[in-house]
Design goal:
The chain is an alpha/beta fold. Helices cover 42% and strands 15% of the residues.
Length: 390
């Protein structure tokens, strides 16, 4: 296994790949549909046709490519894994190194709006002493990071990669922030490297974040039991994607790797059902933003390798032993349109919760939907955890 220091990185899509994509979009074979409530069975054909029309006639990949490349992108080889990351140095007093991690079906492009808010707070209504140096890596198998060829690239392995990456960059102590799989990776980083993680900030939490109960532990509260009912109802109605990606990701990967519209529909449905919108995903995330994310997966051929992370999570699930906790101080943001999240008393069984915020709007993709609100909460959480400037 090799390890090599970071090198500057930029991405330029091949013209032939873009032309092939246009040809595939133009000859899409559309499915039939029955009369039903909009989005009841997935993205309506009329919506996807308008989405593809925008993709073909108004979306400009080269413009989005320039935006991505305007950030300081790097790649590093860690243990045989090529890790892509943005490394934006903070403008301010004693900036805190902060690793922010995304999840499926998002990517590091979710973070492009919030990175400047965190690294240059003065330019975005904040104070210089709230600056962060942001490291936004791509999970192995996602986008510009390499695709794992062997099993075992789960959130435990990624947490260790993040700790090694931060050491490579010269940051012995750092904060972590994440939603979706990023919340799992951030939590496990705090669990496995508590001496290095100054704080854990999460904008999503799963029901699995709870240790085994002991006889001496208090029984589940009414709010915790109500949450279990709500989570079970959500799983019954919405979690088919999880079952597929956790058990047979390769089966659906043939379709998603061959059809850009198939890939888009698989993602767009989540952009709609997991965001704070008025009926369509565009209310929360623009078509250009959605297409940029989808293009990242298409152009790098990572639809399957990203889904496979669900299989890894199933094969080695997150588990806390009775009485075990994630030790570093933890801050949690709860958003009104988020996938069901446990109440605070549940989270306190597993984390050292010192900060809890319920935001007035936003959903699963907080850094996309409400970056200004999320950035302010990250600043507030880390404020008392900062070391004085030397």
């Amino acid at each position: 296994m090799t390890t090599a220091g970071p090198k500057p990185f930029q991405f330029y899509a091949d013209d032939r790949a873009l032309e092939d994509l246009r040809e595939r979009l133009a000859r899409t074979v559309w499915p039939d549909e029955v009369a039903a409530n909009a989005w009841q069975y997935g993205p309506p054909v009329s919506y996807m046709q308008s989405f593809v029309d925008h993709w073909l006639n108004r979306f400009d990949w080269r413009e989005q490519e320039r935006r991505i490349n305007s950030f300081p992108n790097f790649v590093a080889d860690i243990g045989g894994n090529r890790i892509h990351f943005i490394h934006q140095v903070g403008k301010g007093l004693n900036p805190v190194p902060l690793v922010i991690t995304h999840g499926w079906p998002g990517s590091f492009v979710e973070m492009l709006k919030i990175i400047p808010m965190l690294t240059d707070p003065v330019a975005h209504g904040g104070k210089a002493e709230d600056a962060f140096t942001v490291i936004a890596p791509s999970i192995p198998g996602y986008g510009f990071s390499s695709r794992p060829e062997k099993r075992g690239m789960n959130f435990f392995a990624v947490a260790d990669l993040w700790a090694e990456l931060m050491g490579m960059l010269g940051y012995e102590r750092f904060g972590v922030q994440g939603g979706d799989w990023g919340s799992w990776i951030s939590a496990v980083t705090g669990l496995r490297h508590p001496d290095r993680v100054v704080g854990v900030h999460l904008n999503y939490l799963s029901a699995r974040f709870r240790p085994d109960l002991r006889e001496s532990d208090r029984p589940l509260s009414a709010a915790e039991n109500a949450y279990l009912v709500k989570a079970a109802q959500w799983a019954e109605a919405e979690a088919a994607y999880f079952a597929i990606q956790a058990t047979k990701p390769l089966t659906v990967a043939y379709a998603l790797s061959d059809s850009p519209v198939g890939l888009a529909a698989w993602y767009v449905e989540k952009f709609r059902s997991w965001t704070d919108n008025r009926g369509e995903p565009d209310d929360a995330v623009t078509k250009d933003e959605m297409i940029t994310d989808i293009m990242l997966y298409w152009l790098t051929g990572t639809a399957h390798s990203a889904m496979r992370f669900y299989s890894e999570a199933r094969e080695r699930p997150f588990h806390l032993a009775a009485g075990q906790k994630v030790e570093p101080p933890t801050g949690v943001v709860k958003l009104p349109a988020e996938i069901p999240m446990p109440p605070r008393e549940w989270v306190e069984r597993a984390f050292n919760v010192v900060h809890w915020t319920e935001l007035p709007r936003g959903g699963h993709f907080a850094a996309w939907e409400v970056p200004e609100l999320l950035a302010e909460d990250v600043r507030a959480f880390f404020r008392p955890l900062r070391r004085p400037a030397a």
